Amino acid sequence: MNDIQLHEKILCLDLKKQLQQVKGEVFEAFEKVYDKAAFSGGSFVEDFEKSFANFCQTKYAVGVNSGTSALHLAMLALGIGQGDEVIIPANTFIATAWGVSYSGATPLFVDCTDDTWQIDVNRIKEKITEKTKAIIGVHLYGQPCDIDSLKEICEQHKIHFVEDAAQAQGALYKGIPVGSFGSIACFSFYPGKNLGACGEAGGITTNNELFYKHFFNLRNHGSMVRYYHDELGFNMRMGGLEAASLNVKLKYLPAWNNRRREIANRYQHGIINSKIKMQLQLAWSDSIYHLFVITTEDRDELTSYLNERKICPGLHYPVPCHLQKAYSHLQYQVGDCPNSEYLSNHCLSLPMYAELTDEEVDYVIDVINDY
Ligand SMILES: Cc1ncc(COP(=O)(O)O)c(C=O)c1O
């Protein structure tokens, strides 16, 4: 199969292929938004909020302008701020930490395990002090984190459990969709996510009515009644065009997620090269494979080898959060989170999107097995 005729490169993500499929429907939806001039908030956002809450099996969903805003508002709604600490994984996209820092609190980075690459629950307890107000569990690469263990720690210490589900719309933990396990869950609908808007967008789910109402206020200049501002608020509303595109795409998400699961399954069974390590999938976690991350000892060599064969892997992420320059004032050192550091130096993301053909996936597998 190594000799298939590739007409184009196999990208890590080729979003245009998905967009092309739904273009007609999305453009029709855009026209409706345009005709109603419902560009900021409005009925298209409300429709999406209802559908997304239903999808996540939560009472409420609130649309905002990004996943980063969702995390920021989650911290504010929980009353987290200056002097507080929030535990998060060192191995995540940096925005998990931004949400904490914007609130005035300090992120406390904890290493991941060496197999699931999710936050190492056994390293959390030693980090908890009276300043700790929450743990953010990240469903990284689309795989639910160890929710029960994290919630148990939170309950013991009477702190909040928050989900960063930015990469995991539709992932299941013990058969239940993520988004309903935390006091609050935060989603990103960045265009490249499994459910991505045509534009920037994010969302928050919760079963708590007080939080829900508070999010409405916070995202809308701290105002429930126009021009009356009850608290310091933000302009973090979801746009109508983004909501309209999400309304169309949400219908397709289950099928797209299932196709990603099929592709992942093909990789997991097909790749037998001992130089390659894949993320451990646990029985209770049903990933939606936002990313398909592998590790290998010589990443640069493998990257060149794949590029020469028209395969373009991604890299998520080259620097773990605790060693980012933006957090140098927290004085973490190399060696503080060794598993996360190993990953950042050795990880690569294989092509993963629903439109990949079996032939393309098998080509990637064969090329990797020949490496
Ligand atoms: C784990 C994680 N958290 C938060 C975010 C932030 O989302 P956004 O890019 O919509 O602000 C992202 C998305 O990039 C993410 O992957």
Averaged pLDDT, please?
Answer: 97
Strand order of the largest sheet: 2-10-9-6-5-3-4
Number of domains: 2
Count of beta strands: 15
CATH superfamily of the largest domain: Type I PLP-dependent aspartate aminotransferase-like (Major domain)
Q: What is the class of the largest domain in the CATH system? A: Alpha Beta
Low-pLDDT segments: none
Percent strand equals 15-25%
Largest sheet: 7 strands, mixed
**Helical segment count:** 10
Quote the CATH topology of the largest domain. Aspartate Aminotransferase, domain 2
Draw up the topology in text:
Blueprint: E1 10-11, H1 15-36, H2 43-56, E2 60-64, H3 67-77, E3 85-89, H4 95-102, E4 106-110, E5 132-138, H5 147-157, E6 160-164, E7 172-173, E8 176-177, E9 184-188, E10 202-206, H6 209-219, H7 240-270, E11 277-278, E12 285-286, E13 292-295, H8 299-308, E14 311-312, H9 338-346, E15 347-350, H10 358-370
Parallel strand pairs: 1-14, 3-4, 3-5, 5-6, 6-9
Antiparallel strand pairs: 2-10, 7-8, 7-12, 9-10, 11-13, 13-15
The chain binds pyridoxal-5'-phosphate (PLP).
